[in-house]
Design goal:
With 372 residues, the chain is of the alpha+beta class. It has 3 domains: 150 residues, Arc Repressor Mutant, subunit A, CATH 1.10.10.10; 123 residues, no CATH class; 68 residues, Alpha-Beta Plaits (2-Layer Sandwich). The protein has 16 helices and 11 strands. Helix 4 packs across helix 5. It is globular, with a radius of gyration of 21 Å. The relative contact order is 0.13.
Length: 372
Amino acid sequence: MRKRGDVYRRLARHLDDLPAGFPPTKSGVELRILRTLFNEDEAKLALRLSVLPESPESVARRAGLSASEAARKLEAMARKGLIYRLEDEKSGLRYSANQFVIGIWEFQVNRLRPELIRDMEEYLPTLITDSPWKKTPQLRTVPVMESLPVRHEILAHENAEDMLRGQDRFLAAPCICRRERTMMGQGCDKPEEACLIMGRAVDYYDRNGMGRVISREEALAMIRRAGEAELVLQPSNAKKIANICMCCGCCGVLRTIKSHPRPAEFVSSPFRATLRQDACSDCGTCLERCPMGALTRRNGQGIELDSVRCIGCGLCVLTCPTRSLTLVRKPEAEQRDVPPTLRHTYVTMARRRGGLKFIKLVRSLFRSALRV
């Protein structure tokens, strides 16, 4: 007979088998987070889901529930952000497992409590550094457009405005990181509404009350204000994006990678800054705008740029009065491949984690396809 609480360990392993991972800690803080978010019945039902969206009837057969009971419980969990919901006229409502990040955690934006935030702060360094993020980030960094010289050839998936023009549905959502920090008395003065959601994900956010539907023009206006507001543009790590986060120093990912000596290794970015020291006036404007501390003032010798800390966001370039800072494209060997879709991104993440994780993902998809 399993001990009470074992379901949370099984759920933790289940989440860790998903492409983005859910690494264990010595303290067990990840289990405290799951106990706060899921009751035991919800945890048991979550174990029956894979990343493949399924009807309530299919899940019901595996879970030993009636179709109506499964539908009720799955919808309640989706409204809590614990699992994902897809809806369309042809297939109706379907449900799938949520990855913890990006997924379950971001969907808790309206359910935050101080104790939950403290647990997440404790877990975040492990989540970022011990998960697949370094090998295959879920987000990438693109420059604020005004920071790029006209001479650069910019690919469509590197241009934030072009990425938005390829979408037809938009929602503006609050940034969970900024809300967390504000609730803990450590917030900033940046706008909280700073996450753009696109495509089919708009339905999930809108139905769960996590944002407001906006027009393409409003979405374009939001990203055009990013440079002035000192916000880093971080779209999905795919050519066809599902979201763009506009991040400041509150961002959990940016705060975590900033603590490492080589933050550039954690990001997918085709550009980095370069500094012409002979043209620099040593005004220090860039020191306040760089989110990674890549620019420092040397004693009596002007500004110095540490390229291994630069994530290519372009914020320093935008306000350099002498134009001594510019963005340059990295050598091709240093640029990460950008997968065509998020599905490709997740398959790549699972494959790079090693054979067992990839096999478990394939087995989960296969079992769901057979409805067993």
